[in-house]
Amino acid sequence: MSDNTGNQSREWNYHPDLPLADPSIFKWPPNPGFVARWFVRNWLTLSERVMLVILAVLSWWLLYPSLEAAQTFAFGWIFQTWAVNMGLMVVIAGGLHWYFYMRRGQGKTLKFDKRDQAKGNRLWNFSNQVHDNVFWSLGSGVAQLTAFQVVTMWLMANGFAPVISFSSNPVWFVLALVLIPIWSAFHFYWVHRLLHVPVLYKHVHSLHHRNVNIGPWSGFSMHPVEHLIYLTTLCIHWVVASHPIHLIFHVLYQGPGAAMTHTGYEDLLIRDKRRLALGTFYHQLHHRYYECNYGNQEMPWDRWFGTFHDGSDEGTSETRARKKRMYS
Prior knowledge:
Layout: H1 7-11, H2 32-43, H3 48-62, H4 75-102, H5 129-157, H6 170-195, H7 198-203, H8 224-230, H9 244-254, H10 256-261, E1 267-270, E2 273-277, H11 281-289, H12 301-304, H13 313-326
Antiparallel strand pairs: 1-2
Helix pairs in contact: 3-9, 4-5, 5-9, 6-9
């Protein structure tokens, strides 16, 4: 628990040291040592990204249909793709929800918000936050995630999208895995800013923002129009050479991966030691104060464009003033 005092410390169950530091690798002048430490932390330890890459490789070998099967649209392989996506979402989001909110395996240690998931509130479908989030995640979410994946596999299988293999281009194969989360962060910032245009926010994005106190099922709980916009990040595979493993990693990162970053906890503790980074206070501030931190810590856009909330009381005041200007 941070030792900081002030209004922010009173509002949260836990927050890291404030004001938030700048962890982006996109700094000037470049800092090679910082970039090297970032790479080690994200790619040479058992991080969320490494776990999703391993899962992508195993899923491609064992679970998803082959590219040969995807040459023509057919119910069998399309249903198989949907079923795998549904299963992975249930296992990852459901498993995290079970551990943190049903078993309470970590109590409230490193949990940002003091509250539990909401029940008995008509704001939510079924008057239940978790049921609402499960409905939108598994309904619209998995369906549209599968649709983008199916179309992309069909394009790859028929030569309309460039495909590589590890043997033909090992350097780009590895580099593409590193770049996909960076591309995702770039894309997310700009479509997220679009979704906060008042008309889109009111009719579309507000569904996701019911989740002020987030949980694993919150990450992929969106209005169908937002799912459509959010998942256009996968269209990069239509024009940039990749392998089905890259596509699956990207699918996992956007879908089940969102459950990992929305647990409401900063890290997973095992024997009182931080073993896996999960959510960030950076994005938790967005869910609390709305008009700030549209991107994530990977890209510096919020700092460059004046929408960064550093967790301080001053940052809250600036964010509330900006929100008032936007909606006045």
